[in-house]
UniProtKB/TrEMBL annotation:
<feature type="domain" description="6-phosphogluconate dehydrogenase C-terminal">
    <location>
        <begin position="178"/>
        <end position="469"/>
    </location>
</feature>
<feature type="binding site">
    <location>
        <position position="447"/>
    </location>
    <ligand>
        <name>substrate</name>
    </ligand>
</feature>
<comment type="similarity">
    <text>Belongs to the 6-phosphogluconate dehydrogenase family.</text>
</comment>
<comment type="subunit">
    <text>Homodimer.</text>
</comment>
<dbReference type="InterPro" id="IPR006113">
    <property type="entry name" value="6PGDH_Gnd/GntZ"/>
</dbReference>
<dbReference type="InterPro" id="IPR006183">
    <property type="entry name" value="Pgluconate_DH"/>
</dbReference>
<dbReference type="InterPro" id="IPR013328">
    <property type="entry name" value="6PGD_dom2"/>
</dbReference>
<feature type="binding site" description="in other chain">
    <location>
        <position position="288"/>
    </location>
    <ligand>
        <name>substrate</name>
    </ligand>
</feature>
<feature type="binding site">
    <location>
        <begin position="74"/>
        <end position="76"/>
    </location>
    <ligand>
        <name>NADP(+)</name>
    </ligand>
</feature>
<feature type="binding site" description="in other chain">
    <location>
        <position position="102"/>
    </location>
    <ligand>
        <name>substrate</name>
    </ligand>
</feature>
<feature type="active site" description="Proton donor">
    <location>
        <position position="189"/>
    </location>
</feature>
<dbReference type="Pfam" id="PF00393">
    <property type="entry name" value="6PGD"/>
</dbReference>
<feature type="binding site">
    <location>
        <position position="102"/>
    </location>
    <ligand>
        <name>NADP(+)</name>
    </ligand>
</feature>
<dbReference type="Pfam" id="PF03446">
    <property type="entry name" value="NAD_binding_2"/>
</dbReference>
<dbReference type="GO" id="GO:0019521">
    <property type="term" value="P:D-gluconate metabolic process"/>
</dbReference>
<dbReference type="GO" id="GO:0006098">
    <property type="term" value="P:pentose-phosphate shunt"/>
</dbReference>
<dbReference type="InterPro" id="IPR006184">
    <property type="entry name" value="6PGdom_BS"/>
</dbReference>
Length: 477
């Protein structure tokens, strides 16, 4: 019998994806550069479904039904390029080559266009949910042609997470759209984690809560609007004890320097090019960078002063509730900015991306899965061309109701000397959007003066320039 689909690259992700496919009734051809991984998959899991172990990529191609479908799950970058090149030589027009790794969408666009010339469908696919998601149901974001999705889509939908009977998988858009959306997803994940980190820091520093007490607070938050995978696992991390023994909290033994693999950085780099202010994501990426500059932090610790007085909070329970509201409002801003970026990317690269559908496929399987994604889906379903998520009635009410708490939290953080770049940036964005007048008018004046860059008027069309005299006798020219 021939295989329905193949997976090549059987490290953590590929192995789990292959098992997921087999468990869902698909016959899966499996292959890995080093044979050992293929053998161990068969030895341990052949009982889970139908696998066909393949020695080479040529074997893979021979074992597949047409049109052939091959998922590449190898190391992103050069490894992926190498495997794709080898497969391109072996596959035939109409076959479908899926890259499920964390590729940059620009690379996916390049690969798609090169393979299209050879009659092959290349489907750059974002897969979120880590190791556990790959096995039990990830959120899947496939790009490529609608034609490829017709054959491939049903298989991917059968192995994705399901929420209320709807698969967390849909055709995102042409060429690199899937990897683009996965990139923004990861950027939002950075912002969300940063905001959670700031909430933790504030409650611990200002109120002196213990990790156990904090775990309880996050557990309670996870029963309301904030219900999400990230809040759930925050409680779990905070409740953990040091595995090396003693009564101490795990968190207090962990070095406070964060790693990054790069998708957050990509998001910010591309956002700069698109002119989309994803300040929440940018602050999160920079906050990780600051944490990693140990030398500067060591030098500054003894030199730079904190506030001279300890901040007194009269009503600790009220402050906890304020932080919860500030977290929710800031999170809404981070998602609003992320969805703006998807819209801007779709315009720039000519993709037809349904924003509501993106919220729908993030409801399950992925790291940012959360109750409130349903609200985002509703908002875009009701008004597909919503100028900003923040002006949707539900979200406008949420941020408006939360704004007093948000301001108190940012002010208290400043007074207490707790850095809150995420909360601060989100609040500034909210204020910038709603203000009648921004200081951009002054900036126009400055640019006209020092560089004759011209300015625009509120009461007339066109560009104007003043001849700046320095003696108050400026003339319009
Ligand atoms: P790794 O990124 O660790 O890559 C290892 C796999 O790549 C092995 O199977 C290895 O084969 C293969 N490989 C590397 N170079 C080559 C090459 N030149 N030719 C052939 N095979 C090669 O595996 P992961 O399972 O962690 O991740 C796979 C992909 O999924 C990556 O793109 C990664 O970024 C992405 N990923 C996504 C996650 C998510 O949550 N969505 C989480 C983790 C990863 P060999 O055994 O022979 O060395």
């Amino acid at each position: 019998d021939k295989a329905d689909i193949a997976v090549t690259g059987l490290a953590t992700m590929g192995r789990n994806l292959a098992r997921n496919l087999a468990r869902n009734g698909h016959t899966v051809a499996v292959h890995n550069r080093t044979r050992k991984r293929t053998d161990s998959l068969i030895a341990e899991f052949s009982g889970e479904g139908n696998f066909i172990a393949c020695e080479s990529l040529a074997d893979v191609v021979r074992s597949l039904k047409r049109p052939r479908k091959v998922i590449v799950m190898v190391q992103a970058g050069a490894g992926t390029d190498e495997v794709i090149d080898q497969l391109a030589e072996l596959l035939e027009p109409g076959d479908i080559l899926v890259d499920g790794g964390n590729a940059h969408f620009i690379d996916s666009r390049r690969r798609e266009s090169a393979l299209r010339e050879r009659g092959l469908h290349f489907v750059g696919t974002g897969i979120s949910g880590g190791e556990e998601g790959a096995l039990n149901g990830p959120s899947i974001m496939p790009g490529g042609t609608a034609e490829a999705y017709k054959t491939l889509g049903p298989i991917l939908e059968s192995i994705s997470a399901q929420v209320d009977g709807t698969p967390c998988c849909t055709h995102v858009g042409a060429d690199g759209a899937g990897h683009f959306v996965k990139m923004v997803h990861n950027g939002i994940e950075y912002a969300d984690m940063q905001l959670i980190g700031e909430s933790y820091d504030l409650l611990r520093t200002v109120l002196g809560k213990t990790p156990d007490e904090l775990a309880e607070i996050f557990r309670t938050w996870n029963t309301g609007d904030l219900e999400s995978f990230l809040i759930e696992i925050t409680a779990e991390v905070l409740a953990a004890k040091d595995p090396r023994g003693g009564d101490g909290a795990f968190i207090d033994k962990v070095l406070d320097q964060t790693e990054q693999k790069g998708t957050g950085r990509w998001t910010v780099q591309i956002a700069l090019d698109l002119g989309t202010p994803v300040s929440g994501i940018a602050e999160a990426v920079f906050a990780r960078s600051v944490s990693g500059h140990a030398e500067q932090r060591n030098a500054a610790r003894g030199v730079l002063d904190g506030p001279s007085e300890k901040v007194a909070v009269d009503n600790p329970d009220q402050f906890v509730e304020d932080v919860r509201r500030a977290l929710y409002a800031s999170k809404v801003v981070a998602y609003a900015q992320g969805f703006d970026m998807i819209r801007a990317g779709a315009e720039a690269y000519d993709w037809n991306i349904d924003l509501g559908a993106m919220a729908t496929i993030w409801r399950g399987g992925c790291i940012i899965r959360a109750r409130f994604l349903d609200r985002i889906r509703e908002a875009y379903e009701k008004t597909p061309d919503l100028p900003s998520l923040l002006v949707d009635p539900y979200f406008a009410r949420t941020v408006n109701e939360g704004q007093e708490a948000w301001r108190r939290v940012v002010a208290t953080a400043a007074a207490a000397g707790v850095p809150v770049p995420g909360f601060g940036a989100a609040l500034s964005y909210f204020d910038a959007l709603r203000r009648d007048r921004l200081p951009a008018a002054l900036l126009q004046g400055l640019r006209d003066l020092f560089g004759a860059h011209t300015y625009h008027r509120t009461d007339a069309e066109g560009s104007f320039h003043l001849e700046w005299s320095g003696d108050r006798s400026e003339r319009e020219v």
